[in-house]
UniProtKB/TrEMBL annotation:
<keyword id="KW-0966">Cell projection</keyword>
<keyword id="KW-0969">Cilium</keyword>
<dbReference type="InterPro" id="IPR036584">
    <property type="entry name" value="FliS_sf"/>
</dbReference>
<keyword id="KW-1005">Bacterial flagellum biogenesis</keyword>
<keyword id="KW-0963">Cytoplasm</keyword>
<comment type="similarity">
    <text>Belongs to the FliS family.</text>
</comment>
<dbReference type="GO" id="GO:0044780">
    <property type="term" value="P:bacterial-type flagellum assembly"/>
</dbReference>
<dbReference type="Pfam" id="PF02561">
    <property type="entry name" value="FliS"/>
</dbReference>
<dbReference type="InterPro" id="IPR003713">
    <property type="entry name" value="FliS"/>
</dbReference>
<protein>
    <recommendedName>
        <fullName>Flagellar secretion chaperone FliS</fullName>
    </recommendedName>
</protein>
<keyword id="KW-0143">Chaperone</keyword>
<keyword id="KW-0282">Flagellum</keyword>
<dbReference type="GO" id="GO:0071973">
    <property type="term" value="P:bacterial-type flagellum-dependent cell motility"/>
</dbReference>
<dbReference type="GO" id="GO:0005829">
    <property type="term" value="C:cytosol"/>
</dbReference>
Amino acid sequence: MPATAGLARIYQKQSILTASPGQLVLMLYDGALRFMAQAREAFSLPREDLRRIEHINSALLRSQAILEELRSNLDLERGGEFAANLSRLYDYYIRRLHEANLRKEETPVIEIEKFVRDLRDAWAEMLRTVSA
């Protein structure tokens, strides 16, 4: 492993350990978006490329896992209707990515990527407003 890759991993780990809960949520959104982008890149590989299916599958499973982590950490009791609605949205996103993976269709990935980006941007704006 190149020295810079090792340093990047150390920095990333330190970032996670020192991040606020709000920053962690933002990092999770960024991770989900990064994996959806990787899946979209894999869709552009030639159909006969055996790595295509593996890359799509891996990236979408990782995106789904992050969205499931976000969903499972919602406080439905304290969050009330807002948390319940967000839980339903995450469930929909996870199901659509699952469908995209089963059918190897890019369209649902593009759809969910836009929704997650909107959530991520709203969350980032909220963090900026609260810290200002």
